[in-house]
């Protein structure tokens, strides 16, 4: 019994010392739309063959906005967020379909920052999942009360399927 306690203590000490060596290099949020807690939706959740599961967001010209990541900047990190890298997988029905991955920061009354990454900039094969990526640098004077949003906007005439968001922040 005494040996078991000693071995357990040594194992805990080794695990603790290993985890101390790894520094936190940022915060990452992801959503494969299998669990949508904390994300807003405009009634776009669809069951079918998603990129990595059976759920995805289907946006249309009538319902243009996908699931949305939204948080006040102060709730993302205790420190000022300086940079963000974000991505999502989309499936377009044809080569002329359009969608835009949007990164925005809004105050209570207006948009403070808006970056759009369009599928027009990519070689997109019809009915295939393709990843869209974006990067943003937030100004040093950005109010931490402002709300950050990341979503896909269907700014074309065809339905667009959306899945597997990933967002990484650096402070």
Give the topology.
Elements: H1 2-21, E1 27-31, E2 39-40, E3 45-47, E4 55-59, E5 68-72, H2 73-76, E6 83-91, E7 100-106, E8 111-118, E9 129-137, E10 147-153, E11 160-170
Antiparallel strand pairs: 1-11, 2-5, 3-4, 4-11, 5-10, 6-9, 6-11, 7-8, 7-10
Supply Rg. 20 Å
Task: Write down the overall geometry.
Answer: elongated
Spans of at least 5 consecutive residues whose pLDDT stays below 50 are 1-25
Q: Strand portion, in percent?
A: 35-45%
Helix content: 10-25%
SSE ordering? HEEEEEHEEEEEE
- The end-to-end span amounts to 47 Å
The overall strand count is: 11
Question: Which topology does CATH recognise?
Answer: Jelly Rolls
Global structural class: mainly beta
Main sheet attributes: strand count, strand direction, barrel closure? 6 strands, antiparallel
**Per CATH, which architecture?**
Sandwich
Distinct helical segment count: 2
Number of structural domains? 1
List keywords for this structure.
mainly beta; single chain; 5-stranded antiparallel sheet; 11 strands; 171 residues; disordered N terminus
Description:
The chain has 171 residues and is mainly beta. The chain has one domain: Sandwich (Jelly Rolls), CATH 2.60.120. The protein is 14% helix and 42% strand. The strands form two sheets. Strands 1, 3, 4, 6, 9 and 11 form a six-stranded antiparallel sheet that branches. A five-stranded antiparallel sheet has the order 2-5-10-7-8. Strand 3 and strand 4 form a beta hairpin. It starts with a helix and ends with a strand.
């Amino acid at each position: 019994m005494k040996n078991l306690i000693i071995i357990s203590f040594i194992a805990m000490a080794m695990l603790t010392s290993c985890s101390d060596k790894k520094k936190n290099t940022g915060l990452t949020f992801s959503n494969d739309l299998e669990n949508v807690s904390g994300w807003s939706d405009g009634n776009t959740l669809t069951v079918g063959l998603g990129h990595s599961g059976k759920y995805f967001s289907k946006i249309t010209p009538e319902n243009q906005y996908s699931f949305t990541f939204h948080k006040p900047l102060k709730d993302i990190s205790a420190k000022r967020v300086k940079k963000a890298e974000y991505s999502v997988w989309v499936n377009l029905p044809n080569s002329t379909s359009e969608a835009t991955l949007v990164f925005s920061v809004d105050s209570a009354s207006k948009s403070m920052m808006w970056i759009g990454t369009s599928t027009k900039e990519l070689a997109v094969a019809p009915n295939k999942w393709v990843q869209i990526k974006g990067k943003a640098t937030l100004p040093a004077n950005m109010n931490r009360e402002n709300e950050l949003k990341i979503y896909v906007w269907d700014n074309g005439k065809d339905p667009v399927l959306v899945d597997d968001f990933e967002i990484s922040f650096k402070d």
